[in-house]
C-alpha cells in the first residue's frame, strides 16, 4: 500500500495530489480548447465555425456526464476501500468501472451517430452552422470509447497516489493534438473535420497509456525504466463482469458528477436555443468562447477540490476526522481566494480573454459585455465546488445529487428561458449563470457546513 494520506500535513497531501491533477486537467482542456483557438482563427468562416462547434458541445458534454457517472462514483469507493485496506474490493470496483465505461460508450456512439441531424437542429443549429457542427461531431463521436476510458480510468491512477502518471495521460495526447491540429486544419485544409480527427487520434494514444499502466504487473512494467512507478491495484479479468450490487453503490455516488455534466448539457441546449432566437448565430458563437474561458478559469478550483477527494476519502475511511475537517477548510479558503482573483481578471481584461479564441470584430465587441455579465460574482462558484467535493468524497450521494440538480436544472435553466422575456434580451441568458452560482453555491456550502462539517468536528472530539 503506497501514499498513506493519514500521515503528513493534510494541506501538503492535497497539494501533492492537486497540482499534478490540475496540470493534467489543463492539458485535457487542450483537446478541445486548442481546437477552438485554431478554428476561431480559421480564415473566412471563423464565426460560423465556432458556432458549429458550440452546437456540438451538448453531446460532448453528455459523453463527459456518463464518464463522470462511473468514474466519480467509483473513485471515492475505491479510495475508501484503500483506506480500509480492502484491496480486493478496490480492484473489483476498478474492473467494474472499466466495463461500465466501455458499455456505455458504445451505446452513446450508436445513439448519437444515428440521430445527429435532428439533435443538432434541436440544439439550435441553422442551415449555415449545421454544416460545421455535423462535420465536427461525426468524426468526434468515433473517439467516444477512447475518451471515456482514458478520462474515466485516469482518476483511479490519481487515487492510488500517482498524479504525475495521471498528468502524463493527458499530456501525451494533448501534445499530439497540439501537433496534429494545425496539420489537419490548415495544411490538409480539413477545417473543423481536421480538428475532430486530431482529437480522436490523441484520445486513442491517451487511452493506450492508461490501460497499459492499469493492466501491467510489476514484473512487466509499462514504463521501461528502473524504479518506474507501478500501480498496485490493477484491472483484472475476473473483475470485469458487472456486479449489480456494486453498480448500485457506484451509480448513486456518481450521480452527482453525472448530473453536474448532464445539467450542463441541458443548460447548453437551452442557452443555444434561446440565443438563436434573441441573437442569432453570432451569440451562439460568443457563448462557445465564453464556455471556453469558463473551463480554463474554473479549472484550478476544480482541480483543487478533485485532488482533495482522495485525501478526504482516505482519512474518512481511516476515521481520521480531524484531518478531514482540515482538508475541507483548506480547499474552501483557497478556492474562494482563487475565484475572487479570477473574477478580477475578467473585469479588467475581457477583450484579451476573448481575443485568444477569435479575431472576429463583431464577436469581440458583443462578447466583452457578455463575458463580464456571465462571470459576475464568480467567487460564489467556489462554494459549490467545496461543498460538492466534501459530500462526494465522504459518500453522501443524496446531498451531492440534490445540489447538483438545484443549481443547474432548477435555477439556471429556467432563468435562461425567462429572463430574456422580461426585457433583458440576450443579457438575460448571461445573467442566469451568476444568479445560479450565488443561490446554489451558498445553499450547498451552508448545508455541508451544518450537516457534515460540524458532525465531523464532534466526532474528532470524542
From TrEMBL:
Query: How does the protein associate with the membrane?
Result: Multi-pass membrane protein
UniProt superkingdom: Bacteria
Chief site of localization: membrane
Q: Where are the transmembrane segments?
A: 21-39, 59-81, 93-116, 136-157, 169-188, 194-215, 330-353, 373-397, 409-429, 435-453
- Subcellular localization, as worded in the UniProt entry: Cell membrane
Question: For this UniProt entry, which residues form the secretion signal?
Answer: none
Name any Gene Ontology BP term. response to antibiotic
Alphabetical UniProt keywords: Antibiotic resistance, Cell membrane, Membrane, Transmembrane, Transmembrane helix, Transport
* GO molecular function term, any single one: antiporter activity
Q: One GO term of the cellular component aspect? A: plasma membrane
The record's section on PANTHER family has: MULTIDRUG EXPORT PROTEIN MEPA, SPORULATION PROTEIN YKVU
Q: Which family does it belong to?
A: Belongs to the multi antimicrobial extrusion (MATE) (TC 2.A.66.1) family. MepA subfamily.
Q: What is this protein called?
A: Multidrug export protein MepA
Species name:
Parablautia muri
Amino acid at each position: 500500500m503506497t501514499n498513506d494520506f493519514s500521515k503528513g500535513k493534510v494541506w501538503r497531501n492535497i497539494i501533492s495530489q492537486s497540482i499534478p491533477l490540475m496540470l493534467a486537467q489543463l492539458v485535457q482542456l487542450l483537446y478541445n480548447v486548442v481546437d477552438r483557438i485554431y478554428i476561431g482563427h480559421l480564415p473566412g468562416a471563423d464565426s460560423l465555425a465556432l458556432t458549429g462547434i458550440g452546437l456540438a458541445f451538448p453531446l460532448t458534454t453528455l459523453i463527459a456526464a456518463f464518464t463522470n457517472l462511473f468514474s466519480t462514483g467509483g473513485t471515492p469507493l475505491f479510495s475508501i476501500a484503500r483506506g480500509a485496506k480492502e484491496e480486493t474490493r478496490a480492484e473489483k470496483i476498478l474492473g467494474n468501472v472499466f466495463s461500465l465505461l466501455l458499455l456505455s460508450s458504445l451505446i452513446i456512439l450508436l445513439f448519437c451517430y444515428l440521430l445527429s441531424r435532428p439533435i443538432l437542429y434541436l440544439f439550435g443549429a441553422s442551415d449555415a452552422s449545421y454544416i460545421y457542427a455535423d462535420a465536427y461531431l461525426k468524426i468526434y463521436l468515433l473517439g467516444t470509447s477512447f475518451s471515456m476510458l482514458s478520462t474515466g480510468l485516469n482518476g483511479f491512477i490519481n487515487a492510488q497516489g500517482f498524479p504525475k502518471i495521471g498528468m502524463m495521460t493527458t499530456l501525451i495526447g494533448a501534445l499530439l493534438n497540439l501537433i496534429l491540429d494545425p496539420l489537419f486544419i490548415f495544411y490538409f485544409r480539413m477545417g473543423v473535420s481536421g480538428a475532430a480527427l486530431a482529437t480522436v487520434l490523441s484520445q486513442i494514444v491517451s487511452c493506450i497509456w492508461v490501460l497499459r499502466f492499469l493492466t501491467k504487473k510489476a514484473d512487466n512494467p509499462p514504463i521501461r525504466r528502473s524504479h518506474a512507478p507501478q500501480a498496485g491495484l490493477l484491472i483484472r479479468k475476473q473483475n470485469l463482469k458487472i456486479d449489480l450490487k456494486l453498480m448500485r453503490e457506484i451509480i448513486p455516488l456518481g450521480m452527482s458528477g453525472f448530473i453536474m455534466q448532464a445539467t450542463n448539457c441541458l443548460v447548453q441546449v437551452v442557452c443555444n436555443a434561446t440565443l438563436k432566437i434573441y441573437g442569432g448565430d453570432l451569440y451562439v458563437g460568443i457563448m462557445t468562447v465564453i464556455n471556453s474561458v469558463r473551463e480554463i478559469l474554473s479549472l484550478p478550483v476544480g482541480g483543487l477540490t478533485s485532488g482533495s477527494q482522495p485525501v478526504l476519502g482516505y482519512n474518512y475511511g481511516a476515521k481520521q476526522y480531524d484531518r478531514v475537517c482540515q482538508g475541507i477548510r483548506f480547499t474552501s479558503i483557497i478556492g474562494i481566494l482563487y475565484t475572487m482573483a479570477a473574477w478580477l481578471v475578467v473585469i479588467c481584461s475581457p477583450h484579451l480573454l476573448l481575443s485568444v479564441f477569435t479575431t472576429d470584430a463583431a464577436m469581440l465587441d458583443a462578447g466583452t459585455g457578455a463575458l463580464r455579465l456571465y462571470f459576475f460574482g464568480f467567487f460564489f462558484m467556489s462554494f459549490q465546488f467545496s461543498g460538492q467535493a466534501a459530500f462526494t468524497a465522504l459518500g453522501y450521494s443524496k446531498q451531492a445529487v440534490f445540489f447538483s440538480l438545484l443549481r443547474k436544472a432548477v435555477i439556471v435553466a429556467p432563468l435562461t428561458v425567462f429572463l430574456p422575456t422580461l426585457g433583458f434580451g440576450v443579457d438575460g441568458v448571461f445573467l442566469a449563470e451568476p444568479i445560479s452560482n450565488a443561490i446554489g453555491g451558498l445553499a450547498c456550502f451552508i448545508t455541508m457546513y451544518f450537516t457534515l462539517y460540524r458532525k465531523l468536528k464532534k466526532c474528532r472530539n470524542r
